Amino acid sequence: MFFDTVSVKHFESGSAAAAFVADAVSQACKDAVAKRGVFHWVLAGGGTPELSYRLLGDADLHWAAVHIWFGDERALPQGHADRNETMARKALLDVVPIPAANIHSIIFETTTDNAAAAYTEEVKAVDAFDLVLLGMGEDGHTASLFPNNPALSNNALAVPVHNSPKPPAERVSLSFKALNNHRQAMILATGASKADILQAINKGEDLPVCHINDALWVFDQAAWPN
Which domains does the chain have, with CATH numbers? Predict the structure, then answer.
């Protein structure tokens, strides 16, 4: 059995799970700022965490001390509707007073390889991420680390992802090396579409999302009806 009572938080609804995550982010931010004066937070993409971001819009946090990093990004121009950053900006980043310099975008000016190399250089400045928030795809991928993709074995901090099974084919992702350099990690998996893959993981199937160390998994009843 992969999951246990220590590693799982289970909620009746996706909205309750999202609220728990928002509260956890808020508390992690307050703790990090009190201890170290800065909060380095890796954001998940996709639709699942959007409600958590919206709930944080009214949070009374020291936003000037928050640094935003992206677990992955699609090779699309700045502002494109399908970029993870665009969703995060609309839901949270553009409604709270985070300094522009504290939002660490993944920028595709030339090649995917160059974008990954540039992000690696930025990430090197971080001692450890205070909170890594991730989602999970229906194939067991997390960030843009897909099953059987060569990016899985790349030890750079940010890695180019070619031939993604989900469009667009070109992406950049933080690597396992970077994602596991955390003080806290959470994986938010909600909705009935995640139920089958979670059962497969619990029975021992080895998928990319399983390689995030010491993560707290956050489920709703639809994803984990146990």
Answer: 1-111+126-137+175-205 (3.40.50.1360)
